[in-house]
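Not sure how to ask, but would you mind making up any protein sequence you like and the tokens describing how it folds?
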Amino acid sequence: MPLHPAQILFLSSLFLGTLITLSASSWFTAWLGLELNLLSFIPLISSKYNQYSSEASLKYFLIQALGSSIILASAPCSLTFEITPNTMICSALLLKMGAAPTHFWFPSVMEGINWYQCILLMTIQKIGPMLMLSYTLPATSAHILVVSSILSSIVGSLGGLNQTLIRKVMAYSSINHMSWMIAALLLNENLWAIYFMVYAAVSSSIVLILQSQQIFHFSQLSNHNFKTSSLKLTSFIAFLSLGGLPPFLGFIPKWLVIQELASAKAFIWLLFLLASALITLFYYLRIALTSMTLSSPKLKTNLLQSSKSMLTAIMFLNLFPIFTPLALMLPF
């Protein structure tokens, strides 16, 4: 799908805002990068022809503006009331990225936007706030992050059980993965980078398949024939990979986080994360089994049909841990 020149402009400034936050040397510059990121994302998701996207963009703007105002208010509050600014900044950043207990806006915004915008919201839009969270460590905000991680794991796992809209399922899945990313961020920034890159790759591969088939609801999955067994198998593997089932790619970063948490003797925290991972795997299995077994002969246009290379790339991506030992055996 060709992009409009205005969309290219806003996408460029969106990435620029993330880079400014990444390379910032002061809190003000990092905040400036977040604002540029926000002001670039609003035009990308708003549309006067779609009332749902207009509502989603308004909700997103109000929440992000509230988070930004809390970050700005942290400086005078710390001088006047002797409040630790890290606590206020940490709370505002959790609100901006949609982690529990300030997650309520995230599923409703996801519901009102299309699949390509969902990729941006689930991946790029989380980089800036998470990088700024790492600037608050080590500080008094560490216990807030632990509580937020546990709550995100509970909300993300239980919230997705009751949903029939695929975009809401992906939203609660993203909240659950945020609990693992917060844990990785507290343990090791390199571990967070690995987890985020794997999550972004796997979730994007699922969204591309769902976008190509125009699937938004569970009933569409049960009435949909993927037309080719390779596309059906690829979607099945991608969902299981996002759930963190071994030996797929999504399991590798979770394995690393489990090792680090076990080494740090944070067993109660690890118990919550593992229990939530099993529940999320259940609703991924429900989606995957529906797409595998309940297909009818109705056909839709398959945009991925002509692109065998994309299917192969998604399949190889999620089966990467299986292929890695074979690659190591090569003579070169």
About this structure: The chain has 16 helices and no strands.
